[in-house]
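pinned: reference chain
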Amino acid sequence: MSTNLLAQSGETAQPVDMAEQFGAREMVTNASLSPDGTKLVYLSPTRGQGVAVMVADLVPTPQAPRGVFRVDGEPERIESCHWSGNDRLVCMLIASVMVEGRPLYASRLIAVDAAGGEVKVINVRKGGTGMRLGVALSGGNVIDWNPSEDGNILMVREYIPQEAVSSSGSGTLIAQKKSGTGVDLVDTRTLRSKVVEQPDIEAMEFISDGYGRVRIKGTMSSRENAELGLRRYYYRKPDSKDWLPLSTVDKDRQGFDPYAVDPKLNVVYGLNRVDGRLAAFRRSLDGSDSETLVFAHPQVDVSGFARIGRRGRVIGVRYTTDAGEIHYIDPDVQKMVDQLAKAIPHLPIVEVVESSEDERKMLIWAGSDTNAGRFFLFDRDAKTLANLLAMRPGLEQVALGKMESITYPARDGTQIPAYLTLPPGKTSAAGLPVVVMPHGGPQSRDSWGFDWLPQFFAQRGYAVLQPNFRGSAGYGQSWLKRNAFQDWQIAIADINDGAHWLAKQGADAKRMAIFGWSYGGYAALQSNVLEPDLFKAVVAVAPVTDLALLRSDSYGWGDYAYVRDFLGEGKHIKEGSPAQNAAAFKAPVLMFHGDIDRNVDVGHAKLMDAKLKDAGRSSELHIYKNRDHYLEDGAIRAELLRTSAAFMEKAFAGQ
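pinned: its C-alpha cells
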C-alpha cells in the first residue's frame, strides 16, 4: 500500500497554547467523495463560526485542496456538503434566527460548482407570487442523491401557502393553497423541479430507494388530542403507487421504525425493541409483512445502520458497547475493513465513510481515543491507501491521555458504565484532582474515542470521569427510566457516586470539580443541590436551570406537548430545578451561554446567576452574543477552557 498526503496547514509539532489547540474546531468535517471517486469535498473552519468549502482532486495523486465557497458564520454556517454530480455540490446552510422573540434554527440548501461559481439557493416550495402566509424555517432535506441523472436530487420540502394580489388590486387571493411536506425532483444546475409526492399536512418523513422512487411515508397526526408521539408508516410495492400500512411506532420507540430501503432485496431496514433494547430488523415490502431479525446485542441498543455509496446501500448495523462498532452484513466490506485495520493499527476505530458509485474507491476514516482521526482513500483495485487529511493536525504531536472503559458501583449497588481519562503517563487517579463530566441529552451517551473536553483537562493533570448514568441512552428502556429529569435523583446520584468512587481510588477529594454542557450543565448544578460538599467548583455550559421555565419556553410552539409530557408533573419540577434550590449551594459556580440558544434559552443561565447571587452564593456568568447552544467558535471555546481551568484552580486554592 502506498501513502500520499494532501497539503494541510496547521500541522505544528509543538503547539504552545493548549486551550487554543483543544478549543479549535476540527480542520476537516463532513468529508464526501465524488460519484466517480476523483474528488473530495470537506468543510474547514475559518474565523469565528465561519466555514469554507474545500475541494481536492484525488487523481492521479491527491492534490492540495482549494476553497470554492465560504460563509462568515454571522449568522449563516455551512453544516454539510455533498455531491449532486461529479462537478456539482449541494450544501446545507443553517442559522439561528429570532422568530417572535424565540431563537430558532433556519436552514437553506445551496448548489455550487465544484470549481466555484454558479451559486444558487434551492428555495422553499411555495408556488405563485406574493407574500407568504407562513414562515419556512426548513429549506428541505435531500433523501436521494441519485434519482435519475447527474446533478439531480430528490428532496423533501415544506409547501407554504401564499397570498396573491387580485386582478382588481383590491384584496388578496390564495395563490397556492397546498401545505404540508412533499417530495420534489430538483435539477441543482437549473433549479427546475417537479412534484414527486404531493404535500401531506401529516407527513413527517419520506424514504426513497436510492433510485428516485419513494417507498416509505411516515405520518404524525396534527390533531390536538392525538396520541403524543405516535408515528404511522406506510409503504409501496415496487409496481404500485398505493400506500399500504407498514407499522406504528410509539413515543417509547416500540414498533418497527424504518430507516433504509434496499430495492434489490425489496426490503426495508429498521429498528424495533427486543427485551427493551433496540434491535435491527429487515421487513419485506412485497405485501407478506415478513420480518427478519438482522442483529440484536444483549447489553446495548442498536443505534442505526452503516451505509455507503450515492444510493445509501446498507452494509451494517451500528451499536456502541465501549466504542462505536458495526456489525457488517456485507462480508466483502467486513473483509476490507479488517485488512485496513491491520494497515493502520494505531487507529483502531475504522469506518467506511463513503464510496464512489461503483464502490471501487472508498473514503475511510480511522481514529482512536488519543487521535481525533484521519481520512484515507482506499483504492480496492490498485490496493493503495492514500493518507489524506487529519481532523486535528495541531494535536497530532501532542501526547494525550488514554481513555479507559470502567464501571463503578452506585449507592444502590448498580454498576455504572463510564470512561476514565488520565493525564499522559499516569496509570491511576491516586493523588490527582478530578473533573466529573456528565454528558448532555439527557437521552444520549458518551463512548470511547477522542473528545476535546476531557483531553484538555487531562492535559492539565486532572483525572476526568464521564459517567453513562441511568437516564443515558444506548442501554435499553430500563436504563432510561422515565428520563433523567423526572428521575433526576437517580441520575444525579449516579454521577456523584462516580466522584465518591474516585476518592476511594485515592483521588484528591479536596480538588474535585464538575463540568457539564446542556443537560450535563444541569447535572453539574443539581449535583450541588444533592450533595453541596462534594464538588469544590461547578462549571455549567448552556445549562437547564429550571424545569418549569423549560416547559414554559416551549408554550405555543409545536414541541410544547412533547416537552410538557417529557418533564411531567410533580414535586420534582421544583426539587429538580437548581435555580429553585440556590441556597443549598456551597461551591462557586461558573456558567457560559450563547444569547441565541435554540436548545436552552439563555434565560436559564441568567435566572441561575440571579438566584445564586440573591442567596449570597458565588456565581460568574459569561454570555456570548450571537452564539447558539454549541458555541462553534474556536476563540470562544479556547476562552471557555482557559477560564474554566483558572476557575477550578482558584476554587481549589481556597480550600
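why pinned: Residues 1-5, 9-15, 127-134, 163-176 have pLDDT under 50 and may be disordered. The first helix runs from residue 18 to 23.
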